[in-house]
Amino acid sequence: MIDVLVIGGGNAALCAALMAREAGASVLLLEASPQAWRGGNSQHTRNLRCMHDAPQDVLVEAYTEEEYWQDLLKVTGGATNEALARLVIRESSTCRPWMRSHGVHFQPSLSGALHTARTNAFFMGGGKALVNAYYRSAERLGVQVRYEAPVDSLELDEGRFVAAWVGSERIEARSCVLAAGGFESNREWLREAWGVNERGEHPADNFLIRGTRFNTGTLLRFMQGAGADMIGDATQAHMVAIDARAPLYDGGICTRIDCVSLGVVVNREAQRFYDEGEDFWPKRYAIWGRLVAQQPGQVAWSIIDAKAVGRFMPPVFPGTQADSLHELAVMLGLEPNTFVQTLERYNAACRVGSFDHTALDDCHTEGLAPAKTHWARPLDTPPFYGYALRPGVTFTYLGLKVDARAAAHFGGRASDNLFVAGEMMAGNVLGKGYTAGVGMSIGTAFGRIAGTQAALAAIKEHSHAAA
C-alpha cells in the first residue's frame, strides 16, 4: 500500500508530494489532466509574494510580516483567518531555498510589473518552468505520477481517508492530500452560485476562465456532500477583468488588461462605476473581474489616451484605436454622446498635481462620483484606446476548513490522515479580494505542511500496523 496519495498536479500538490517523499514516505500523485496540460493554474503564474526583513537576492528593501498582513487584511476586508494567514506569511520567508533545491530559479521583477520588486519573487521562466522543475524533482526522488487520472470520490471512515476512486479503480493509501483546485471550470456550478441577477441575466454565462479547464470541483463537491466543514462564499474568487477576446480556458497572464488605473472604465451604458485609482494595481487588479461581473452584460471597457502608452504591461491583443472620443465610442459600440459626456465630466473633474504612477500621488478628481483618488489625468491626448473587458475567473474561494496542520475537518473534528492544500483551502486565508502572488504563497505553505503531516500520519500508521 502507498503511504501518501496526493490528488492534484499543481504547485500545492507538488510541494506536498516532494515534502512527503523527503520525509521518507512512498508517494503517488494523481493528476486529472494529460501530461501536456499538467500543473493546473500554477502553470499560468509568475511569482510568489514573500515576507523578508532585509534585501534578499531578487527582492529589494524589506517587506515585513506586519506589512504583508496589513496588505492582506486590506484586500480581504477582514475576511481571513489571521492565524493561518500569518502562518502563510512566515512560511513565505523561508520556502525559497527549498524551492531552489528542487530546481526553481528566480529573477528580478519584470519590467512593467508595477510595484512588485519589493514584495514578489518572480520565477525564471514563469509558472510552467516551476511546475516542470517540480515534476523533474519528483521523478528523481521516486514519486509515482499518473496523468489523466481524475478522482471521482473518496472512501472515508468517520473522517479518516481509506481510498480514492478513479473510475472503477480503487486506490488505497495510509494518508491523503487533497490539492485538486477549485470549481472555476465547472460552468454549471458557477451558474448555480451566481444565480440570476436583477436584469434576468445569468452572469456566469459570460465568465471566461483564465486558468485550467480541469478544475471542475468534483472532489470539493464530494467533500461537501460527505459532511466536511466548508469555508467561504461560492461567488468569491480571484476574478480579474481580462481581454474580452481571450479564450474560454487557459488564457493565463497575457490576457490581463493592466491599464485600468491609468484611465477610466465604463460599462455598456458608457458610465463609470468604480474608482480606478483606489490603490496600486497589484492590490486591486483582482477586484475588477467581480466589478465587471456586476455590470450589464458582464462587459466593460478600459479607456486610455496616448499619455498612458508605455506605462503598463502591454496586453497580447492591441486595443481599439481612434483619433477622437466620439470615433472611439462608435468603434466600441457605445452610445457616442453619453460616452463623450462621461469623459468630459471626468476630464473637468481632474485635479492634476504631481503625477507619479509608482506612488499614491495627488492627482485626483473633485465633485465626481465615483471619484478617482490617484493618477487622475484628463484623457485629452489622441490617439485614444479602448479595451473590452470580461470577468476572468482564476480560482474560486469556496473550500475546506483546515487548521495549522492542514487537516480537513468534519463536525469540528480534525481528520488524522486527510489533509488539504492550495485552492481547495485558500478560502481560509482569502475570504474575498486578492493581492498579487498570495495564491502561490498559500499553495506553497500549505502544500509543504500537508505533505509533511501526511507523511507523519502514514509513518505512524505503518509503525502501528507493524507493532
TrEMBL record:
Reported cofactor(s): FAD
Pfam hit, one: FAD_binding_2
Keyword Aminoacyl-tRNA synthetase part of the UniProt annotation: no
PANTHER family associated with the record: FAD-DEPENDENT OXIDOREDUCTASE 2 FAD BINDING DOMAIN-CONTAINING PROTEIN, FUMARATE REDUCTASE
Protein name: Tricarballylate dehydrogenase
Keyword Transit peptide in annotation: no
Domain FAD-dependent oxidoreductase 2 FAD-binding span(s) in chain numbering: 3-429
Keywords annotated in UniProt: FAD, Flavoprotein, Oxidoreductase
Gene Ontology molecular function: oxidoreductase activity
